[in-house]
Design a protein that fits this description.
arsenical resistance; Metalloregulator ArsR/SmtB family transcription factor; 11 helices; 2 domains; DNA-binding transcription factor activity; 3-stranded antiparallel beta sheet; 253 residues; Arc Repressor Mutant, subunit A; Rossmann fold; Ptyr_pPase_sf; alpha/beta; ArsR-like_HTH
Length: 253
């Protein structure tokens, strides 16, 4: 089954349309691709022009509102601008949320700017397609570098250890525990899930994350050792979680 990728930006007239066409051209056998905008406008003529000049099909490309697709299942949601990341950081859960930031070429309305944007998008999408091939779904089992890179971030390590301690947690609980914005939490959880450290499970309206019980034994040993020797990372988050539980009637946002 193809994995589904949704590109999101503000107008869905240039960046996200170009990204949709690029990924479909580069890895259409691996991914089902679409794009949408928070405030959609018509496809920009220069976006369609530079795609055609690069030999990338533009048939079927159209701008559409995010509301039209956000209730569908997506494996990846890639935000292409800071505004989309800020406004849409938690849509389409439990999709992996990925935040990129590309300047809108429509702001200059210059052919050369659109060409440069297409080039930059192509490089990023090529990397995405390479990393997310089906053979690398569980990177930790085959690629220790990806595992240690994921664990090298202090927040990701602390979040992993807190989830391990609690059994399972949802994004809103982690947001409260670490006192950080929800989009940041979602991005880091996606990284941990991608390397095979976490599972995501929908329970009613919420998505809960837990330790992946199928992780290789050597990975479990590393996680357990980190938990035994890094208790200080979760002391304050644990107190915040306890305070949250003591406030009756405070639901997840």
């Amino acid at each position: 089954m193809k994995r589904r990728v949704l590109f999101v930006c503000t107008a869905n007239s240039a960046r996200s349309l170009m990204a949709e066409a690029l990924l479909r051209k580069m890895a259409g056998d691996e991914f089902e691709v679409a794009s949408a905008g928070t405030e959609p406008a018509a496809p920009h003529p220069l976006a369609l022009q530079v795609l055609s000049e690069a030999g990338i099909p533009t048939e079927g490309l159209s701008s559409k509102p995010l509301q039209e697709v956000e209730n569908q299942h997506w494996d990846y949601v890639i935000m292409l601008c800071e505004r989309a990341t800020r406004e849409c950081g938690s849509i389409c859960q439990p999709a992996q949320q990925i935040a990129w930031d590309f300047p809108d070429p429509a702001a200059t309305n210059r052919h050369g700017t659109f060409v440069l944007t297409l080039k930059d998008l192509k490089e990023r999408i090529k990397l995405f397609a390479t990393v997310h091939q089906k053979v690398t779904r569980k990177l930790s089992a085959e690629n220790p570098v990806a595992l240690f890179k994921a664990l090298s971030d202090e927040f990701r390590l602390a979040a992993l250890l807190l989830i391990r301690d609690q059994g399972s947690l949802c994004v809103c609980e982690l947001t409260e525990a670490f006192d950080v914005p929800q989009p940041k939490v979602s991005r880091h959880l996606s990284t941990l899930k991608e390397v095979g450290l976490l599972n995501a499970e929908r329970r009613g309206q919420w998505i809960y994350y837990s330790i992946d019980s199928e992780m290789p034994g050597w990975v479990a040993q590393i996680v357990n050792a980190a938990a035994d020797n890094s208790r200080q990372l979760v002391e304050i988050p644990l107190r915040r979680l306890e305070a949250m539980s003591e406030r009756p009637g405070v639901p997840c946002p």
